[in-house]
C-alpha cells in the first residue's frame, strides 16, 4: 500500500529524486576543497623556525572553509569530509543529531545520493523532518517529506533499490519502520510498537530490525475513549447575535456548565428569531473526538439544528450520535438537538481533524430563538501543556482538572508562530548554568494503565529567533507508583537529555514503557530543566508532552527478521532463528546495534539471559554466547571490520569477569573467538565507532561520554574530550605513538563509503591538521608545513600528575596567581652561538621528561642530542616564564617567577648555565616591587650587558624602575639612567646602541607608549608622534634593516587592538582587526613572490601578526599575514575543549636575517648540475685560452722544428756524483 505524501505527490518526489541523481557521476570531482593562495614566506635565511603559544591543535590555513570554530555542544551535528591535510570540513549542518548514513544506489548502478537520517528538522538550512537526500556532487539537500519524528537507522539495499528506515516516527500508515523507493512505501506490516535503533542485512539476505519493541503494530486507542477534556475555558469566546437579555448574553456562560444549571448566568441565548453562531478560538491545536452539548430550556427556547465548522480549514464536520429513540445516526450541516432535553447529547467526530478554532452555527431554533446551556469538548490524545490554562479545567465530575503543569523560574509565554500552540520560554545567563535554574513539571491525566510512548514537543527556534541561544535540556520522569502494577517495589525514575536546537517543530520520544494510571496517591510526571554546565545566554522552551497508548500483535522482543520477497507476514515468529533469539531475551529487551560477519549476526544492547548478557551471535540455529558470557553492561554500538567486531558501550569486563581492560570499548575476534582490549579503554561509555584515515592509514575513531583514555602499559592515561583514535595496525592509541596525527575533538556519529566519492562522515568536531601542543616547527620543504617538536601538552589528569609522550609531555596548569598569561607556552628562544644548539620554551606548565624527571614551566631541547631537559628545582611551580634571552653560556629567563636558587631568593629573573646544565652560581639580586614581572629581555650586541624590562622598582637595592641592566662581567645591576617609568612590555635592539622599548611607559613624567634608549649616551628619547598612538605598545619589530622605521601593536584605551607603522616621521595605522582581537606578536617576513604595491612596505615583504585574532570577513585565527591591503589567515589553532588557541611568539635560529631574502630556489640536484656545467665550460675556456696563448708565444719567438733523431748530451752527468745524489735521499733534510 502506497502512502499519501502529506502535501507532495509521489510523482513530484520521484522527479526531485531523478533530478538529484542525474547529475551524480561516480569518479567526478564532487565536493572540491579550494586551496588558498600560498603565504609565500621566505624562511631560507632564518634557519629553524618555530612558533610558541597556548594551543593543542594547529593547522596552516590551506583550504577555503577551514576555521577555528569549536565543535557544537548544543546537540546539532554536521555532514563532514576530510580536507587533504586530514582535518574535517563541514559540508552541511543539521539542527539536531545525525544517526545514520548510507549511499542510495539504484539497481542500474546509479548513485541517487546519500540518505541522511537523524533527529533533525532541517539540514543545510532546508526543512527536512528527520531524513533527507544529500547530493555528493553538488552538496544539495533534497528533503524526503512524510515522516514525523526522528530517524535512528537507515539501510540502503542496492539489490532492491530500497532504503529501510527505522526510528521513532510516524509516516503513512506505519510507525517506527518504513521503506523508501521513489516514495514512501508501507512495509507489509504496520511498523512496530516501539522504536527501531538498528537495521542490517542478515547473511541470508533478509532485513533485520533491532530496537525496543515486542510486536508488530501501531498505536492504539485507549479502552476508555474520549476521556481527555479540551479546556474550552482557555479559548477566546465570541458569539453573535446575542439576545441582549441580562444574564443571558455572555457566550462564556455555558463553559463548565451543565443543563442542570440552566438559567441566568449559566445560559447563552441567541437573539430572537435569527440564526447565529457561537465560536471558540484557542492558542493551541487539538484533534477532538467528541462534542457534548447541553440544550437550553430557558423561556421555551432552544437550538433545533446546528453545524460544526473546523477552523482555520473551514470544514464542516461529520458526526455520529444516538437519537432519543436509541438509533445510530449521522449528521453534518444540520445536526439536531432535542427540545427540553434533561441531559447532554454526545456527538462523535467521524474524521480525526486537527484545528485550533471552531464555530457552531445555529440554523433553526425552538420558541423565540436558539441558545445553549453547556458545551464540552473531548479528545483521545493525552497531553500535558506547560501553559496550565491549556490543560483540562476542573469544572464538573467529568473534568476533575487532574492534568496540570508546575513551573519554577523566570518563564514567559511565547506566541505560537508556526507552532501548534503557545509555549513557555526563558533565557538564562551565566557561565555555568545549573539544572535548578528553571523547571516545568508536566502532570498528565492517565486514565488507563498500560504501555505508552511518551513524546515531548519542542517548538522550532527560527520563529522566535533563538537559534543562536538554544541548547540542551534534561528530562526526568516518574512513571510508576510505588504500590502500582509497574513494579513490585518503588518505580525507578528515568532521565534523558534532548537538544532544542531544531529550526522547526519536532518531537522526541523520551520514554517507552509501562505507566501506572493517575490516582489519588500517584500522578505520573515529566520534568524539564536545563542541562547543567552550559554557558549563557541559553534559551530553553517548554510546550507539551504527549502520552500515546500502544499495543501490538505481540510475539517479538527487540528483533525482527523481514523477508522482502514475501508480500505478507507470517506471524509464526518461531520459524525465524533471529526472532526466536529475541523472544529468549529478558523482557522489554533493548537492541542497540547489529552487525554481520560470515554466517553470523551479532546483536548488542541491554538484555540478559541465563547464558549471556548484552551481546550474542545467532546464525541458523540457537543464539550463541560470546566468550565470558558476553559483557557486563549495555552495548551501544557495533562496527565490523574484517574478522574483528569493535564493540562500544558502558561495560568494563565480560559477564564472568575474566577479561579485564574492556572499559567502554572492546574488540571481538570472530576467527580466534577471543576478546581483546583497546589498551585499557576509556573512563566512560562509548556510543559510536567510526573508521577514518590518518596519514593515509586506517584508524578507528572511538566517540562517547568520556574525557580520558586510561593507562596502557607504560603509557599513562591522557585527556580525550569525547573522542580518541586507535591505530589497529600498531594496536595502540595514536596519542601514544611517535607519529604525526590530526587533532580532533567532539564526536563522530556515522560514516559511509560513497561510490566514486570521498567517504562521508557525520558528527560535531573541531579538528586540525596537527595535534601539536604549544610549540610547533614551521618548515619550508616543498612548501610550508608544520612539524611537531619532541614535546606534547595535555590537560591535567585525575589519576596522573604527569603524562609521558615521545620524549616529553607537558601538562598545562591553571595560571596560578599569574594574570599576565594563561596556560601554555608564552615565550621561546633558539640559540646556536658558542657551540650551543638549543631551543628553550617557557610559560606555565608542568612536564615530565623521558627519564621521568619533572620539568616546571621551562624546558630546553638540545638540538644536537634531541634530549629534553628542564631547569633544576628551586623555582616555584606557580611561576610563569614570559621572556628569554641568551648571552655567552647563560640563559636569562624572566617572568612572574619566584624561588630559591643556591640559597638565594630569586624574583622576576633567574640565570641558567647552559654548559653546566644547572643554575648559574651567580644570581642577580631580587627584583623589587609590588607585583614583579619581567616581560622582556634584550642582551646588547657586542656587550656584556643584558637589559631587563617589566614591572618592578629596583634590582636589589639598586633603583632602576621598569628597566634594569645586568652587567654580567661585574655581576651587578646598573641603572640605565633616570626618566623612565611605568611597565615595559617589549624591547628590541634596532642597532648596537639603540634599544626600542614599548609598553605603558612614562618618559620624564610624560606618558609615552614607545621610547628609544641610547646606550652610548645613557638617555631616553620618545619616538616622535607617539602621543597619536591609541594605547600602550605590547609588541614591536623593525620595519627595515636600518632600524629607522618600526611596526608596533598594542591595546587601545577602548580595549581594541591596533597595529601601526612608523616610517621615521609619521605613524600610519593599518586596517583594524575584528573586535576581540588580542595581538601577542608581530614580525616582518620576506616573501618568495611579490604582492601588489603597498604604502607600508616593499612588494617582497609582509607582516605576520600573532595572537588570538578576529580576521575581518573570516573569523578567528591565531596568525594572519598583512600584505599592505588586507589580512589573510595564516595559522589556525584550538585549545582542548574546542576554543580558539593563541600563538604568542615566532622563534627563529637567525633573528638577524629577517630582512635577507633567499630569492628563488632551485632543487639541489639542479643546482649541482648547473654548477657542474659551469665548471666544464670554464675548464674548456681555460684550455682553449692556453692553446691560443702558446701559439702566440711561438710566433713571437720563432718556431724551430724539433729534431727527428733523439738528442742525448752526457756532458752534465759528471756535475753531480751519483754517490752524493743517493746519500742525500737518506739525510731527512727539511727546508
Write structural notes for this entry:
The protein has 1231 residues and is mainly beta. Helices cover 5% and strands 45% of the residues. The chain contains 4 helices and 90 strands. Strand 7 (122-123) and strand 8 (126-127) form a beta hairpin. This is Cellular morphogenesis protein. It comes from Rhizodiscina lignyota.
Question: Secondary structure elements and their pairing?
Answer:
Layout: H1 10-22, E1 49-54, E2 57-60, E3 78-82, E4 88-93, E5 97-105, E6 111-119, E7 122-123, E8 126-127, E9 131-134, E10 141-143, E11 147-157, E12 162-171, E13 174-180, E14 184-185, E15 196-201, E16 207-211, E17 228-230, E18 236-240, E19 268-269, E20 276-286, E21 290-295, E22 302-311, E23 315-316, E24 319-322, E25 328-331, E26 335-336, E27 345-349, E28 355-366, E29 371-379, E30 382-385, E31 404-408, E32 412-414, E33 423-428, E34 439-443, E35 450-458, E36 472-478, E37 494-499, E38 506-515, E39 525-530, E40 538-542, E41 544-549, E42 559-562, H2 577-583, E43 590-597, E44 600-608, E45 613-618, E46 624-625, E47 635-641, E48 644-649, E49 665-669, E50 674-677, E51 685-694, E52 697-705, E53 708-709, E54 718-719, E55 723-727, E56 732-733, E57 743-752, E58 760-768, E59 775-780, E60 784-788, E61 793-795, E62 808-812, E63 824-831, E64 838-849, E65 854-862, E66 867-870, E67 880-887, E68 890-901, E69 904-913, E70 918-919, E71 927-928, E72 933-939, E73 945-951, E74 954-955, E75 958-959, E76 963-967, E77 972-974, E78 980-989, ...
Parallel strand pairs: 61-62
Antiparallel strand pairs: 1-59, 1-90, 2-89, 3-4, 3-58, 5-6, 6-9, 7-8, 9-10, 11-12, 12-13, 13-14, 15-16, 16-42, 17-29, 18-20, 19-29, 20-28, 21-27, 21-29, 22-23, 22-26, 22-28, 24-25, 24-27, 30-41, 31-34, 32-33, 33-40, 34-39, 35-38, 35-41, 36-37, 36-39, 43-44, 44-45, 45-46, 47-48, 48-49, 49-50, ...
Amino acid at each position: 500500500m502506497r502512502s499519501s505524501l502529506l502535501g507532495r505527490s509521489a510523482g513530484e518526489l520521484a522527479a526531485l529524486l531523478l533530478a538529484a541523481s542525474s547529475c551524480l557521476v561516480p569518479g567526478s570531482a564532487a565536493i572540491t576543497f579550494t586551496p588558498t593562495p600560498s603565504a609565500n614566506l621566505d624562511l631560507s635565511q632564518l634557519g629553524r623556525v618555530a612558533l610558541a603559544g597556548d594551543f593543542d591543535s594547529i593547522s596552516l590555513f590551506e583550504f577555503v572553509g577551514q576555521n577555528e570554530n569549536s565543535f557544537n555542544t548544543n546537540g546539532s551535528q554536521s555532514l563532514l569530509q576530510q580536507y587533504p591535510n586530514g582535518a574535517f570540513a563541514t559540508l552541511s549542518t543539521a539542527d539536531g543529531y545525525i544517526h545514520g548514513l548510507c549511499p542510495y544506489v539504484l539497481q542500474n548502478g546509479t548513485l541517487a545520493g546519500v540518505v541522511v537520517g537523524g533527529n533533525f528538522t532541517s539540514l543545510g538550512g532546508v526543512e527536512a523532518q528527520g531524513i533527507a537526500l544529500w547530493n555528493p556532487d553538488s552538496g544539495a539537500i533534497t528533503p524526503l517529506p512524510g515522516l514525523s519524528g526522528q530517524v535512528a537507522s537507515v539501510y540502503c539495499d542496492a539489490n532492491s533499490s530500497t532504503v529501510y528506515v527505522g526510528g521513532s516516527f510516524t509516516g503513512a500508515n506505519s510507525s517506527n519502520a518504513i521503506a523508501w523507493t521513489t516514495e514512501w512505501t508501507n512495509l507489509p506490516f504496520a511498523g512496530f510498537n516501539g522504536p527501531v535503533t538498528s537495521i542490517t542485512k542478515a547473511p541470508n539476505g533478509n532485513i533485520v530490525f533491532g530496537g525496543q519493541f515486542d510486536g508488530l503494530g501501531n498505536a492504539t486507542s485507549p479502552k476508555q475513549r474520549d476521556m481527555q477534556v479540551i479546556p474550552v475555558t482557555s479559548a477566546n469566546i465570541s458569539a453573535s447575535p446575542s439576545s441582549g437579555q441580562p444574564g443571558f448574553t455572555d457566550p462564556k456562560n455555558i463553559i463548565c456548565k451543565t443543563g442542570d444549571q440552566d438559567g441566568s448566568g449559566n445560559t447563552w441565548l441567541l437573539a430572537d428569531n435569527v440564526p447565529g453562531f457561537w465560536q471558540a478560538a484557542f492558542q493551541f491545536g487539538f484533534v477532538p473526538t467528541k462534542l457534548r452539548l447541553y440544550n437550553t430550556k430557558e423561556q421555551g427556547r432552544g437550538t433545533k439544528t446546528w453545524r460544526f465548522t473546523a477552523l482555520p480549514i473551514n470544514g464542516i464536520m461529520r458526526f455520529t450520535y444516538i437519537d432519543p429513540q436509541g438509533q445510530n445516526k449521522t449528521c453534518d450541516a444540520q445536526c439536531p438537538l432535542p427540545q427540553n432535553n434533561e441531559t447532554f447529547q454526545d456527538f462523535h467526530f467521524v474524521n480525526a481533524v486537527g484545528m485550533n478554532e471552531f464555530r457552531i452555527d445555529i440554523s433553526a431554533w425552538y420558541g423565540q430563538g436558539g441558545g445553549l446551556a453547556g458545551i464540552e469538548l473531548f479528545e483521545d490524545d493525552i497531553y500535558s501543556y506547560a501553559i496550565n490554562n491549556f490543560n483540562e479545567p476542573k469544572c464538573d465530575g467529568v473534568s476533575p482538572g487532574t492534568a496540570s503543569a508546575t513551573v519554577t523560574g523566570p518563564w514567559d509565554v511565547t506566541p505560537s508562530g508556526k507552532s501548534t500552540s503557545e509555549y513557555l520560554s526563558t533565557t538564562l545567563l551565566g557561565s555555568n548554568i545549573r539544572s535548578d535554574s528553571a523547571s516545568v513539571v508536566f502532570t498528565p491525566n492517565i486514565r488507563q494503565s498500560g504501555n505508552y510512548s511518551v513524546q515531548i514537543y519542542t517548538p522550532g527556534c527560527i520563529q522566535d529567533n533563538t537559534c543562536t541561544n538554544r541548547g540542551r535540556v534534561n528530562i526526568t520522569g516518574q512513571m510508576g507508583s510505588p504500590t502500582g502494577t509497574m513494579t513490585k517495589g518503588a518505580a525507578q525514575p528515568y532521565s534523558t537529555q534532548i537538544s532544542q536546537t531544531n529550526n522547526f517543530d519536532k518531537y522526541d520520544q523520551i520514554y517507552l514503557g509501562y505507566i501506572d494510571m493517575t490516582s489519588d496517591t500517584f500522578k505520573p510526571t515529566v520534568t524539564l530543566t536545563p542541562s547543567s554546565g552550559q554557558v549563557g545566554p541559553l534559551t530553553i522552551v517548554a510546550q507539551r508532552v504527549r502520552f500515546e497508548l500502544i499495543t501490538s500483535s505481540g510475539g517479538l522482543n527487540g528483533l525482527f527478521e523481514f523477508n522482502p520477497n514475501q508480500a505478507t507476514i507470517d506471524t509464526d515468529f518461531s520459524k525465524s532463528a533471529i526472532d526466536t533469539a529475541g523472544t529468549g531475551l529478558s523482557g522489554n529487551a533493548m537492541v542497540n546495534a547489529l552487525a554481520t560477519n560470515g554466517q553470523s549476526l551479532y546483536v548488542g544492547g541491554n538484555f540478559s539471559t541465563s547464558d549471556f548478557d548484552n551481546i550474542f551471535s545467532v546464525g541458523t540455529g540457537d543464539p550463541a554466547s560470546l566468550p565470558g558470557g558476553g559483557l557486563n553492561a549495555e552495548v551501544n554500538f557495533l562496527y565490523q571490520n574484517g574478522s574483528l567486531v569493535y564493540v562500544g558501550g558502558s561495560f568494563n569486563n565480560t559477564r564472568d569477569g575474566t577479561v579485564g581492560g574492556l572499559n567502554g570499548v572492546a574488540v571481538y575476534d570472530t576467527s580466534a573467538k577471543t576478546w581483546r582490549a583497546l589498551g585499557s579503554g576509556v573512563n566512560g561509555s562509548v556510543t559510536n565507532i567510526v573508521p577514518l584515515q590518518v596519514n593515509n592509514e586506517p584508524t578507528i575513531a572511538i566517540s562517547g561520554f568520556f574525557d580520558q583514555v586510561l593507562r596502557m602499559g607504560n603509557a599513562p592515561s591522557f585527556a580525550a574530550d569525547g573522542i580518541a583514535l586507535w591505530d589497529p595496525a600498531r594496536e595502540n592509541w595514536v596519542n601514544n605513538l611517535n607519529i604525526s596525527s590530526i587533532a580532533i575533538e567532539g564526536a563522530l556519529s556515522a560514516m559511509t563509503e560513497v561510490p566514486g566519492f570521498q567517504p562521508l562522515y557525520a558528527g560535531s568536531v573541531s579538528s586540525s591538521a596537527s595535534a601539536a601542543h604549544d610549540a610547533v616547527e614551521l618548515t619550508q620543504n616543498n612548501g610550508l608545513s608544520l612539524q611537531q617538536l619532541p614535546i606534547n601538552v595535555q590537560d591535567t589528569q585525575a589519576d596522573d600528575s604527569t603524562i609521558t609522550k615521545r620524549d616529553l609531555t607537558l601538562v598545562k596548569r591553571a595560571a596560578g596567581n599569574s594574570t599576565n598569561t594563561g596556560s601554555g607556552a608564552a615565550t621561546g628562544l633558539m640559540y646556536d652561538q658558542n657551540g650551543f644548539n638549543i631551543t628553550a620554551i617557557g610559560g606555565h606548565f608542568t612536564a615530565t621528561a623521558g627519564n621521568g624527571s619533572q620539568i616546571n614551566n621551562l624546558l630546553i631541547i638540545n638540538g644536537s642530542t634531541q634530549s629534553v631537559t628542564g631547569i633544576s628545582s628551586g623555582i616555584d611551580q606557580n611561576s610563569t616564564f614570559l621572556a628569554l634571552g641568551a648571552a655567552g653560556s647563560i640563559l636569562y629567563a624572566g617572568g612572574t617567577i619566584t624561588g630559591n636558587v643556591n640559597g638565594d631568593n630569586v624574583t622576576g629573573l633567574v640565570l641558567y648555565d647552559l654548559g653546566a646544565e644547572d643554575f648559574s652560581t651567580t644570581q642577580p639580586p631580587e627584583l623589587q616591587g609590588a607585583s614583579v614581572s619581567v616581560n622582556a629581555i634584550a642582551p646588547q650586541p657586542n656587550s656584556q650587558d643584558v637589559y631587563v624590562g617589566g614591572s618592578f622598582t629596583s634590582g636589589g637595592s639598586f633603583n632602576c624602575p621598569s628597566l634594569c641592566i645586568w652587567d654580567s662581567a661585574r655581576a651587578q645591576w646598573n641603572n640605565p639612567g633616570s626618566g623612565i617609568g611605568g611597565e615595559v612590555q617589549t624591547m628590541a635592539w634596532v642597532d648596537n646602541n639603540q634599544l626600542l622599548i614599548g609598553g605603558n611607559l612614562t618618559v620624564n613624567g610624560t606618558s609615552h607608549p614607545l621610547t628609544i634608549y641610547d646606550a652610548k649616551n645613557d638617555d631616553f628619547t620618545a619616538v616622535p608622534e607617539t602621543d597619536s598612538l591609541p594605547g600602550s605598545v605590547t609588541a614591536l619589530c623593525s620595519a627595515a634593516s636600518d632600524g629607522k622605521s618600526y611596526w608596533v601593536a598594542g591595546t587601545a584605551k577602548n580595549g581594541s587592538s591596533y597595529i601601526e607603522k612608523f616610517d621615521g616621521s609619521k605613524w600610519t595605522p593599518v586596517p583594524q582587526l575584528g573586535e576581540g582581537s588580542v595581538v601577542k606578536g608581530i614580525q616582518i617576513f620576506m616573501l618568495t613572490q611579490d604582492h601588489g604595491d603597498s604604502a607600508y612596505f616593499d612588494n617582497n615583504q609582509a607582516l605576520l601578526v600573532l595572537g588570538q585574532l578576529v580576521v575581518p570577513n573570516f573569523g578567528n585565527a591565531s596568525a594572519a599575514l598583512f600584505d599592505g591591503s588586507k589580512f589573510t589567515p595564516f595559522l589556525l589553532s584550538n585549545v582542548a575543549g574546542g576554543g580558539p588557541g593563541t600563538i604568542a611568539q615566532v622563534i627563529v635560529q637567525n633573528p638577524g636575517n629577517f630582512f635577507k631574502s633567499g630569492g628563488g630556489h632551485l632543487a639541489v640536484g639542479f643546482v649541482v648540475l648547473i654548477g657542474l656545467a659551469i665548471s666544464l665550460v670554464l675548464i674548456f675556456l681555460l684550455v682553449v685560452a692556453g692553446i691560443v696563448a702558446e701559439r702566440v708565444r711561438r710566433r713571437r719567438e720563432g718556431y724551430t722544428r724539433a729534431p727527428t733523431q733523439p738528442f742525448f748530451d752526457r756532458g752534465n752527468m759528471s756535475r753531480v756524483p751519483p754517490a752524493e745524489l743517493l746519500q742525500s735521499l737518506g739525510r731527512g733534510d727539511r727546508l
